[in-house]
Amino acid sequence: MIKVNDKIPAGELQQLTSDGMNNLSTDYLFTDKKVVIFAVPGAFTPTCSEAHLPGYVVNFDKFKAKGVDRVICVSVNDAFVMSAWGKSQNAENILMLGDGDATFTKSLGLDMDTASFGGVRSQRYAMVVDHGVVTHLNVEQPGKFDVSDAESILAVL
Question: pLDDT tens digit string along 71-119?
């Protein structure tokens, strides 16, 4: 599993915009930037929709005030689902990125097999990445939502 002081591995995530599908490299997303990235097991699922994403949406300005250049939400869903979920949550300031085949999630070592729920998914986590290097990582225990919420990450910035 990725840890503090590790560099984000090379890879791509997908974003659906009004101009179409974009493949965004990790170099583009993280180089020369301070980024908060959080991941959820699935878009439109209860904890993710009722607490996790909304916390980052309502606190976006606080992240910017603390010098964060980007806030990214990732899920092992396709970019179409992530775009629709973002729109339904008024998450226009959050980069809603799909990792449809879990390649990025697996490269972090933060994948999990949920069997009949949806197969390979991401563990719930949040991290701070400064110029491509992880400076803080909070990974939730299975079934928990205690350390990856927006307030916990704001507290470490």
Answer: 999 999 999 999 999 999 999 999 999 999 999 999 999 999 887 777 8
Q: Would you call 124 exposed, middle or buried from its count of C-beta atoms within 10 A (0-12, 13-18, 19+)?
A: buried
- Specify the DSSP element, H or E, that contains 83: helix 79-88
Q: Is the pTM of this model over 0.90?
A: yes
Tokens 């949406």 identify what position?
A: 57
Cα distance between residue 17 and residue 141, in whole Å: 33
Q: What whole-number distance in Å separates Cα of residue 134 and Cα of residue 130?
A: 6
Q: Which residues are catalytic?
A: 48
Structure tokens belonging to residue 152: 């916990």
- 123 with 29: CB under 8 angstroms? no
Q: Which residue has the tokens 């910035």?
A: 157
Q: Are 9 and 107 in contact (CB under 8 A)?
A: yes
Phi, psi of 45 (to 5 degrees): -85, 160
